[in-house]
Design goal:
single chain; 566 residues; 21 helices; 49% helix; binds succinyl-coenzyme A
Length: 566
């Protein structure tokens, strides 16, 4: 790009920056020297390929979504938490909010993630263990007791049974007297990554996609700020994918949901802002920063050029980041604080919109209160002390980071081609039921391609670790203990007994006939193709349990068994 065009862009950015609201904060270095809100080429210099880098707040958004970067608003500190019953988790949420957490993020226990009630024999031993147990709207009410749902953005990490759990959240809001249309938050929902990596699905892919389409329709029509899909690379990366695979599979999944929305006749400029993303911040500092920058650029280009999005918001890739659980070690666990800080810094330099920092004890158990607090404070140290929130995309223009960004983008584009090819194998006539990327994803799930590719990457990494080419302190180098014992959070089995008892009591009190009628109406909608959300809401209002709703749908739609493969 020639120098004049760069200057014109700078002036455009400056005008938008001047017109934007900034935080009341001291934007100088520790020594008191002023810093600019963003840096670019020296005035008068040309810069080849600058259109790929650009200015913050402008297409292709490589440097961030807002002209102000974090000067307008810092990222959301959103710590993922949940354990035991709704009451215990509610206490933890209040502690997080009092300590300066900016939003909530619900971790559900395994039975809830699988759409099963706490009294299901298959839930035995798991109730309240890796997250909070939620059986019905009544539990959801307790979970958010004294937390005004209209004022706090709430993320819920659930995908198989996302839609019924979302209905419980809506009903809890209704019972607080909050108008659902003002709710703001995020539901994970992303089912593609379940088949690809995390493996927590309820049905075949098609009925899941149908439910997701219902949810997108419902939110686009009536809950404009809510993000019904958090397209997640985190679990793909944690399963062993490389950075480029994480990026490409996740963005492809995002394209799949765009195709789903379009196939339902929704307006891309209306529903696309409801898609947000969730990435892993692993420990290779620069590669991660490059990944985040490439993610925004690829998404904006595809949204504009392939799917016809016209507004900035529909071209924006907004993302939450979690530091890499898989990088934490049980050996010398206090070192995990350092790893997490470095990973969090990469997320921030990559422009994350929201961040979870893992606690040092998470390889061993759910975080203790003390470990959870250190994790939260890690973000606050970055935010308040280091000056990283003063300048947008401070590594933009670094030869290394720009080249890494380009390379990861090119790798991702190659993977999109492979996915499209798989779609054509499934539909050689080019007539795709939902869209070309969706066909490729579904084919890649069916034939185990994604799983195989990830397994291959995980295997290669493990080999290099075992050979000593890759080094991890306390694991294959620098052995020995630097710390004493950790105090681990243990969730008592009493939680399960109590949850089962309360559930039985609630079931005894409710009107069973009303539950049956509501479930029948929901199944009728499932059969006739109309939107399932309203009848599901009625079932939830009647205190139908999560297990009852999911079981009814399982019976209707059948279950999914992964093809065997190696
Ligand atoms: C979009 C995100 C990513 C972030 O939403 P947030 O509300 O926190 O932040 P945001 O939208 O970026 O910002 C809030 C509002 O401020 C505005 N805003 C932000 N920065 C601004 C700036 N500089 N200038 C002007 N406005 C600005 C935004 O446009 C938005 O307004 P408007 O709303 O008006 O636009 C959302 O989807 C989210 O919260 N995701 C979290 C997902 C999550 O927690 N997942 C946990 C998974 S845990 C998991 O899966 C477990 C893994 C495991 O351990 O196994």
């Amino acid at each position: 790009m020639d120098a004049d065009a760069i200057e014109e862009g700078r002036r455009r950015w400056q005008a938008r920056y001047d017109a934007s609201r900034k935080r009341e904060a001291d934007f100088t270095t520790l020594s008191g020297d002023p810093v600019e809100p963003v840096y670019g080429p020296r005035p008068g210099d040309a810069y080849e390929g600058f259109e790929r880098i650009g200015w913050p707040g402008e297409y292709p958004f490589t440097r961030g979504l807002y002209p102000t970067g974090y000067r307008g608003r810092t990222w959301t500190i959103r710590q993922f938490a949940g354990f035991g019953n709704a009451e215990q988790t509610n206490e933890r949420y209040k502690m997080i909010l009092e300590a300066g957490g900016g939003g909530l993020s619900v971790a559900f226990d395994m039975p809830t993630l699988m759409g099963r009630d706490s009294d299901d024999p298959r839930s035995l031993g798991e109730v309240g263990h890796c997250g909070v147990a939620i059986d019905s709207a009544a539990d959801m009410e307790v979970l958010f007791k004294d937390i005004p749902l209209g004022d706090v953005t709430t993320s819920m990490t659930i995908s198989g049974p996302a839609v019924p759990v979302f209905c419980m959240y809506l009903v809890a809001a209704e019972r607080q007297g909050v108008d659902p249309s003002v709710l703001n938050g995020t539901l994970q929902t992303d089912i593609f990554k379940e088949y690809i990596a995390q493996k927590e699905w309820l049905f075949q892919p098609e009925p899941h996609l149908r439910l997701i389409g219902d949810l997108m329709e419902h939110c686009a029509a009536g809950i404009p700020a809510y993000k019904p899909l958090s397209v997640s690379g985190y679990h793909i990366r944690e399963a062993g994918a490389t950075a480029a695979q994480e990026l490409a599979y996740t963005l492809a999944d995002g394209f799949g949901y765009v195709e789903l929305g379009l196939s339902r006749g929704l307006d891309v400029d209306v529903f696309a802002p409801g898609l947000s993303f969730f990435f892993d911040a692993h420990v290779d500092f620069f590669e991660e920063i490059a990944k985040f920058r490439a993610a925004r650029r690829i998404w904006a280009r595809w949204m504009r050029d392939v799917y016809g999005a016209r507004t900035d918001k529909a071209q924006w890739l907004r993302f939450h980041t979690q530091t890499a659980g898989v990088s934490l070690t049980a050996q010398q666990p206090y070192n995990n604080v350092v790893r997490t800080a470095v990973e969090a810094l990469a997320a921030v330099l990559g422009g994350t919109n929201s961040l979870h920092t893992n606690a040092l004890d998470e390889t061993l158990a759910l975080p203790s209160e003390q470990a959870a607090e250190i994790a939260l404070r890690t973000q606050q140290v970055l935010m308040e002390e280091t000056g990283v929130a003063n300048v947008a995309d401070p590594l933009g223009g670094s030869w290394f980071v720009e080249q890494l960004t380009d390379r990861i983008e090119a790798d991702a584009e190659k993977i999109f081609e492979q996915i499209k090819e798989r779609g054509l194998r499934a539909h050689p006539d080019g007539r795709h039921p939902i869209g070309p990327i969706t066909s490729g994803i579904l084919r890649g799930i069916e034939d185990g391609w994604f799983t195989g590719e990830i397994a291959e990457s995980a295997f290669r990494y493990q080999q290099s670790l075992e050979k000593g080419d890759k080094r991890v302190v306390g694991v294959n180098v620098h052995h020995g203990s630097v710390t004493g014992d950790l105090e681990i959070l243990r969730v008592s089995h009493e939680v399960e007994r109590e949850q089962v008892r309360v559930l039985a009591e609630r079931k005894a009190r409710r009107d069973d006939a009303a539950v049956r009628t509501a479930l029948e109406a929901m199944l009728a909608a499932a059969r006739d193709g109309s939107n399932t959300i309203e009848p599901m809401l009625d079932a939830v209002r009647a205190e139908a349990t999560l297990g009852e709703i999911c079981e009814a749908l399982r019976e209707e739609w059948g279950v999914y068994t992964e093809p065997a493969g190696f």
